[in-house]
Design brief:
106 residues; mainly alpha; 58% helix
Length: 106
């Protein structure tokens, strides 16, 4: 969903999912915080790959958007995803149900 409208090869998508601990052909479980976090991480990997490839940026044309506009927008989306990923908890963290941590032990 994060890369909607951007043509990506199926083999590339599989690599992004594998790199982020997601089996490419398994059913997505939206109730799992870890799965949700990994999906966002895979999307971030795809967007970073696109942003780091000038030839890809030149080939993507959307309506009347220039390459500069697209590059700015994709960088803004990368920043938003990084922030969102930092805030998401994993399955283990959500089981603790606590926002506090212990700095010192007894």
């Amino acid at each position: 969903m994060e890369t909607k409208g951007i043509p990506l090869d199926q083999s590339e998508l599989i690599v992004y999912l594998d790199e982020n601990d997601l089996p490419p052909h398994d059913e997505y479980n939206p109730k799992s915080p870890t799965n949700k976090r990994n999906i966002y991480r895979a999307s971030l990997s795809a967007l970073e790959s696109i942003a780091n490839s000038p030839s890809t940026l030149k080939n993507i044309k959307m309506d009347d958007m220039t390459v500069q506009d697209f590059a700015t927008n994709i960088q803004n989306r990368i920043d938003q995803l990084e922030y969102k990923i930092r805030k998401l908890k994993t399955d283990e963290q959500s089981q603790l149900n606590s926002n506090a941590f212990r700095l010192f032990r007894n």
